[in-house]
What we know:
The protein has one helix spanning about 5-45, and strands spanning about 55-70, 75-95, 95, 100-105. By secondary structure, it is of the alpha+beta class. A hairpin with a 2-residue loop joins strand 1 (about 55-70) and strand 2 (about 75-95).
Amino acid sequence: MFNKKGQSTLEYALIIAVIVAGLLLMQMYIKRGYAGRLKSSTDDMGEQFDPNAYTANFAISQSSNTLQTIQNRVTNTQHTAPQTNTKTGTETIAAYDPAVDVYSQ
Length: 105
């Protein structure tokens, strides 16, 4: 009486329609979950660097002893003592206060 091939095709079409409808209904929750995870990741990164809020005052001194010899148009450079680098100073990063709209320390 009934066409079995047509019936199974209809059943497959209904199953696919139910799956697609379920995915469309879940779309909002998937977007919310993704947006929440993205926000959490950006919050974990912290504040972005702002060059206007950064001040530094450093004195860098370098010292090295080198011996350079030239023989037959070949330069030979030797370090006779270890090189030393010294960095001293201060560094300040100001926080932005949106209520005042100026940078404060």
